[in-house]
Design brief:
Layout lengths: L6 E18 L5 E20 L3 E7 L12 H13 L5 E7 L9 H16 L6 H11 L3 H6 L2 E5 L4 E4 L6 E7 L6 H11 L12 H9 L2 H7 L1 E2 L2 H7 L3 H10 L4 E4 L6 E5 L2 H14 L4 E7 L5 E2 L1
Parallel strand pairs: 1-8, 3-4
Antiparallel strand pairs: 1-2, 1-12, 2-4, 2-5, 5-6, 7-10, 7-11, 9-10
Helix pairs in contact: 1-2, 1-3, 2-3, 5-8, 6-7, 9-10
């Protein structure tokens, strides 16, 4: 065990530039071909020694973040401590900047951030493989929050293959009022596809090539999200947000993951500011955030 100190980890949000969804499996999950791209919106998780396990939060939408053991940050500390036969005596403070329940893996980011912070605080020196195993146990998106950059997630999204990215991309994210439950969106996907042939999910070669070459125009043409129809079915107003962003000059628009955040790929930083201002002025979203990608994964500060 190390001397008492605090450890802070910065961890990024994500956008799914492709989310291909297979039919429901017997265990209730779906096989995915999930192309993750980390973006420059971050949470920071600080781990400090304590007499028990507690969680606090500040920042955007902090009032919507659970502070009990259901928080993925708390669960990460518990799982890591259990593996090493120690008590999860830590206070976890989350500085929240990633939209909550917005399809950008904010909760998953906090889980990955807490895991890395506790590992450093407790001097455990866990291998990357062990940390990724715990991440997969926490949730399908958590491993990517640790890895960052770009990656293809298969299985239920937790089996990662890192992908090369040949340049930077500019994004605008429109944050909606309220959240959408990921299980509910998948349930709606199942309802909408009932009786239909659901193809095996596979990554788009054109999309992977666009990432590799850093070609924004080609990436815009290849963006795809099989959950978008389900998200729009549950929240029809998102269609107005998508339209507002494309009319303002975005090259492409899609629902981010299970939503309700919508993502707009734009040409450059100037275009990002223009589209963000237009989205806010349209009244179709609560706010709009500008970001770039790729971004590094969980990083000790």
């Amino acid at each position: 065990m190390t001397a008492k100190r605090s450890v802070t980890v910065r961890v990024p949000a994500k956008v799914n530039v492709q989310l291909a969804v297979g039919a429901a499996r017997p265990d209730g999950f779906h096989d995915l071909a999930n192309v993750f791209l980390a973006v420059s919106l971050h949470d920071e998780v600080t781990a400090t020694p304590a007499d028990g396990l507690t969680v606090s939060c500040e920042g955007r939408d902090a009032d919507k973040v659970p502070l009990d053991r259901t928080n993925l940050a708390a669960r990460a500390a518990e799982l890591l401590a259990a593996r090493h036969g120690i008590a999860p005596d830590v206070h976890l403070h989350i500085a929240k900047d990633i939209p909550v329940a917005g399809g950008m893996a904010g909760g998953s980011a906090d889980g990955a951030g807490a895991l890395l912070a506790c590992d450093a605080l407790w001097g455990l020196d866990s291998s990357r493989e062990e940390l990724l195993e715990i991440c997969a146990e926490l949730g399908s998106d958590v491993p990517f929050s640790l890895v960052g950059g770009a990656a293809l997630g298969t299985g239920r999204g937790e089996k990662l293959t890192e992908l090369p990215v040949g340049g930077g991309f500019h994004w605008v994210f429109a944050v909606a009022d309220g959240g959408l439950s990921t299980p509910v969106v998948f349930g709606e996907f199942d309802r909408l596809t009932e009786g239909a042939e659901v193809p095996e999910p596979a990554a788009s070669p054109a999309l992977l090539d666009a990432l590799r070459t850093g070609d924004t125009t080609a990436l815009a043409a290849a963006l795809a999200n099989d959950l978008q129809a389900a998200a729009l079915s549950l929240r029809p107003s998102l269609a107005e947000t998508l339209t507002a962003g494309t009319e303002a000059g975005a090259l492409a628009a899609l629902v981010s993951g299970s939503g309700p955040t919508t993502a707009f790929l734009v040409k450059d930083a100037e275009s990002a500011e223009t589209v963000a201002a237009a989205l806010i002025a349209s009244g179709t979203c609560r706010t709009a955030r500008v970001a770039t990608s790729p971004a590094p994964g969980a990083t000790v500060l």
